[in-house]
Automatic annotation (TrEMBL):
<dbReference type="InterPro" id="IPR055438">
    <property type="entry name" value="AstE_AspA_cat"/>
</dbReference>
<dbReference type="Pfam" id="PF24827">
    <property type="entry name" value="AstE_AspA_cat"/>
</dbReference>
<dbReference type="GO" id="GO:0006508">
    <property type="term" value="P:proteolysis"/>
</dbReference>
<feature type="domain" description="Peptidase M14">
    <location>
        <begin position="30"/>
        <end position="308"/>
    </location>
</feature>
<comment type="similarity">
    <text>Belongs to the peptidase M14 family.</text>
</comment>
<keyword id="KW-0862">Zinc</keyword>
<dbReference type="InterPro" id="IPR000834">
    <property type="entry name" value="Peptidase_M14"/>
</dbReference>
<dbReference type="GO" id="GO:0008270">
    <property type="term" value="F:zinc ion binding"/>
</dbReference>
<keyword id="KW-0479">Metal-binding</keyword>
<dbReference type="GO" id="GO:0016788">
    <property type="term" value="F:hydrolase activity, acting on ester bonds"/>
</dbReference>
<dbReference type="GO" id="GO:0004181">
    <property type="term" value="F:metallocarboxypeptidase activity"/>
</dbReference>
<keyword id="KW-0378">Hydrolase</keyword>
<protein>
    <submittedName>
        <fullName>M14 family metallocarboxypeptidase</fullName>
    </submittedName>
</protein>
């Protein structure tokens, strides 16, 4: 359904220029601190893991260093798994779910895999609770060569530097009520397009790759998350956020064509998680646990494939 809402920045129907992007950036505010809520948790893991800085954001390099966490007993004979969180910085459980996985589960799974975790790809977005970076660019639509999004460019360079194929990639996200109330209206205004109202699903779902859907892998993730939280139902048209539901709690996107983080590695098995933190049925800790459960489901499936 078309919306009568008019975004307060720009002229309706006209794409933003530099002035509108500047106006948008100036109305953002720091609402929480990366160096208080995230970095100390990362640094605390250095006792058990290799914590490496793989870059920094030029907006404020000292405030926004970028970290990845790796297992110490790296073994070239093992397959490598990648976990990414906070590509959209405002999606809180993506960041803290990634860290909770390292804190509670990574030691066990390092017996089977080399593990790389980038817990907060977009720290400016984390602090300002934003989907975009300061230039009004969505990092999760920016994983392509010569990308203008520093967040995406730094992560791609880090993954390239591993010099190994990625066996499993789990990209941790959330779908929030603010997607519909703020971020999609802002996107329509930025691009000079008409806003079509959508519906936020109540529950967890995953996004697979249209080109490499791996339905049994997606099912394993859903079954694991079911032990922690509820799965999003399809709407009356058998869709979730406008895409066909291909099995319970699963939709597919063309990840590479859309330049999404989930498509950056060319992994054998990949999934993008979507937690719904605004549901009255969940709390913040349950959302973090759901992200951990998704990773566990993915890695247990991977172990089974290696033994087959």
């Amino acid at each position: 359904m078309k919306s009568s809402f008019v975004y307060p920045i720009g002229v309706q129907g006209k794409p933003w220029g530099d002035q509108e992007r500047k106006e948008w950036r100036e109305q953002t505010r720091i609402k929480r601190e990366y160096n208080v809520e995230v970095v100390p948790k990362i640094q605390a893991l250095a006792k058990q893991y290799n914590v490496e800085q793989y870059g920094a954001l030029s907006y404020d390099p000292e405030r926004y260093p970028l970290f990845c966490i790796k297992n110490c007993d790296w073994d070239e004979s093992k397959p490598t798994i990648l976990v990414t969180g906070g590509v959209h910085g405002y999606e809180t459980s993506g960041v803290h779910g990634a860290l909770k996985f390292v804190e509670t589960q990574a030691q066990f799974y390092s017996k089977h895999f080399n593990i790389v975790v980038a817990p907060c790809v977009s720290p400016w977005g984390y602090e300002t609770i934003n989907r975009w970076n300061p230039n009004a660019i969505d990092p999760n639509r920016s994983f392509y060569q010569d990308t203008p999004a520093e967040e995406s460019a730094n992560l791609m360079e880090m993954v390239k530097g591993l010099k190994t194929e990625i066996f499993i990639h789990v990209d941790l996200h959330e779908t929030t009520d603010s997607d519909e109330t703020e971020f999609r209206p802002a996107l329509a205004a930025r691009d000079g397009k008409e806003l079509i109202e959508g519906m936020i699903p109540d529950g967890f779902y995953t996004v697979g790759d249209t080109e490499n859907p791996q339905p049994e892998f997606q099912r394993a993730v859903i079954e694991s998350v079911k032990q922690v939280t509820h799965i999003a139902p399809a709407d009356s048209n058998n869709k979730i956020i406008g895409s066909d539901v291909v099995q319970e709690g699963v939709i597919n996107y063309p990840l590479k064509a859309l330049s999404l983080c989930g498509g950056l590695s060319g992994c054998q098995y990949g999934t993008t998680t979507e937690v719904y933190p605004d549901s009255p049925k969940v709390n913040d800790e349950e959302c973090n646990h759901a992200q951990v459960a998704a990773i566990i489901g993915a890695l247990d499936f991977g172990i089974a494939q290696l033994k087959a």
